[in-house]
Each structure stands twice: as C-alpha cells, then as structure tokens.
Amino acid sequence: MADDTSGRQPGSTAQRTRHLAIAELVIKRGSVSMEDIAEHTGVSTMTAYRDVRALEDAGLLQRHRGQVSAVASGLQEASASFRIEQEPESKEAMARALAGLIPPGSSVALDDSTSGIYVVRELAKTPPTTVITNSLLVAREATQASDIHLFLTGGSYEGWADAVLGPTAISTLEGLDMDFCVLSASGIADGRCFHPYEAVVAVKKAMLRAARTRVLLLDHTKLRRKALHAFARLDEFDHVVVDPGAGDDDLAQLAAWGARVVVAEATSPES
Q1: Where in the chain do CATH 3.40.50.1360 domains reside?
Q2: What is the distance between the alpha carbons of residues 95 and 66, in angstroms, rounded to a whole number?
Q3: What is the Cα–Cα distance from 258 to 256, expressed in whole angstroms?
Q4: Cα(101)–Cα(130) distance, integer angstroms
Q5: What pLDDT is stored for residue 104 in this prediction?
Q6: Which positions ≥6 away from 247 have C-beta within 8 Å?
Q7: What pTM was estimated for this model as a whole?
Q8: From edge to edge, which strands make up the β-sheet containing 229-233?
C-alpha cells in the first residue's frame, strides 16, 4: 500500500506531518484508539502503529490496552482533566495501600495529584479524617464524604492543575502541623523526586515541612520520566507506595536509593 511505503521513510515530510497530526489528536482527545489514529491520518493500521511507536520512542505518547495517550514531558505537565484518566487501576491500588497506613482521625495533606481523588475515596471508608489540600479536584471529592473535614489552603487558581498555588497556599501550610502529607512526583532520577513547575514544587516542599509522616505515591511510569525541579529525596519519605506494575528491577533501584517501599496489591478480578 502507498501509505505503508511512505511510512518507511523515516525523515519524510509525510511522516512528520502524520506524527504532528497524531500528537495533536491525542492531546485534544486525551486517549485515542489505534483504529481512530489510522482513520484520522488516512494510513493503514500497520503504518499507524509504526508512527505511534516512533512517538513512544520520542517520549511523547504511550500505549496501554489498545489506547494511546500523551506522556507529560520534563518541561510540561499534562492537564488535570487529562491526568485523571491515566492509570486508574494503579491509583486505586496505591490508595488502598496508603489507607492502611493512616489511622482514623488523622490530618492528611494531599497535593494536586489526581491520585488524591482515589485517596479521599479510601479515607472516606474509615472516617473521621481531616483533608488539607490545594487541589479543587480533591476538594470536590472530599465534599462527597460527610465525615471528612475539608481544609483548603487558598491561593492563586491555576486552571491546568485545577488547584491553587503561590505564596498564600505556602503561608497557610507553614502555619499547620499535620499528621501526614501524601505527594506525587512527575519523575524520579538519581534518588530524587522532580516536577516540571516551580510553583507546584514550592507547595510540595511546604507540605513536607508541615507533616510528621511523609508518603510518596509513585506509579511505575514515573520511573522512566524526567522533570525540571527537584523537591525531595526518596529517603526523606517514611513510605514510598508503588503500584503493582513496578518490576523487580524498579523495586531494587528504589531500595538502592533509600526508599522504604510499600507495594500495592492489584485489584482482584472479582472486585
């Protein structure tokens, strides 16, 4: 087929045009099937797979169960509305593992990670709990649980994160004494946690300073990403909760970096 021939030309203008069209389609829709990509670009499924593979190799896209989604880069984080749809099973598993570490009646700070939504759902099963957050996504979830006391930090609203950031949020956190903080990272390298945005890092650091027990939620995909700003070492966390997708090599590397790892259990088919 003619489109397959053009797909074999690694530097061709046609291929570059398709790659751009595929990236824009995935970013716009959030998650796209291979069949939709082939139809959108007017090529065979085989060529579409080659194009997506090239974008995977470039660190822009990822495939999971037949769907193609975007990968956050070291300079830019995906929007909250997009991130909330990524790796839901992993987030649920980590939230269940985390809930077992937090006694009822605790005060828990949650950052703007979309994993916080799943954490709130688990904490609501053993109330009462106080949730402190700068995330409006987390806050809206917490309002659905009558026995969770919600405390918002305040600050300047950032739509991409659906969260409040800036000096007001940091000042509020500095005046608190919390039992736990639960954070996420966009990437891990050399035993340190990274995030693309300095304003987000400042809030994470403030939560770390204010909490007695520090927990990191880390799905295995973050082990292969890099970001710009460091905010903590792995050995600064009391617990690093990883999802069931983390392999033996991943766990060994985390342990070598000083992480105290808790591996979440996968959801059973009956649940």
Answers
A1: 82-263
A2: 25
A3: 5
A4: 15
A5: 93
A6: 220
A7: 0.71
A8: 187-189, 192-195, 229-233
* Contacts by 27-30, CB closer than 8 A, 24 or more apart: 27/70, 27/82, 30/69, 30/70, 30/81, 30/82, 30/85
Rounded CA-CA distance 17/42 in Å is 12
pLDDT of residue 194: 92
CATH architecture of the domain with residue range 82-263: 3-Layer(aba) Sandwich (3.40)
CA distance 200 to 161: 9
User: Would you state the pLDDT for residue 4?
Assistant: 44
Helix axes 13-29, 45-57, angle to 10 degrees: 80
Q: What is the pLDDT of residues 137-179, one digit of tens each?
A: 999 999 999 889 999 999 999 887 889 999 999 999 999 999 9
**Residue 129 is inside which H or E element, if any?**
strand 129-133
Determine the topology of domain 2-71 in CATH.
Answer: Arc Repressor Mutant, subunit A (1.10.10)
